Amino acid sequence: MRHPKTIFVSMAIIIVAALTVSSQKPVDHGGKIETKYDGFTYETVMRLHKMKVTCSGFKDYFKDGCISIDVTLHCPGTQVNYVRSVTLQVIFDPKNWDQSHNIDQRDLSVVADTETLRIGRMRLLPKRDSFKNDAWTETLEATVPYKVFKKMVRSQSVELQVGSSSFELRDKNIAALRDLDNRILRSQ
Question: In degrees rounded to 5, what are phi and psi of residue 108?
């Protein structure tokens, strides 16, 4: 068991980091970013909550519906200066039930400026019980290395490709990702 003084000092570092970030001029990107400690997984998570990317759809595929992203940075322990991994979720809200991605159409690639980074196959998350009609909503998730996330943040344009379909992040999405990354105390 950790000494109470050690826990207090660790929590004080997180509070100082939060105050430092909050004293900076907020970026107007429209996304909601939250930082909290998860005592079950012993990590601090910094999360950009579900943010809409487009409702115009994919090129060549997902024509009617909306696409959103949800990104979480995982920092081990109570510190916020080292990111162990990044979780990227792509949420598809189609208007038709037949627009889900087959298992062989879930490979994720990121095009950051002109560089294509192949991430791997995304996993389908189970649907949560909900009162709203989201029976057709599909959430795909992948664990992305922090180096890939940094390339996305530093790029002028970012395109995500899921299977044979692709969509480009808007300027506000990239600004939200940069804001999320700027909350890390030390660059890796």
Answer: -105, 130
Helix H or strand E segment including 91 = strand 85-94
Q: Which residues contact 120 (CB under 8 A, 6 or more apart)?
A: 107, 108, 142
Rounded average pLDDT per 10-residue block, the chain, 188 residues: 50 48 63 95 96 72 76 95 95 75 89 94 80 71 95 95 87 96 78
The span from the CA of 47 to the CA of 118, in Å, is 23
Distance (Å, rounded) from C-alpha 98 to C-alpha 100? 6
DSSP 8-state assignment for residue 101:
P
163, with CB counted inside 10 A (0-12, 13-18, 19+), is buried
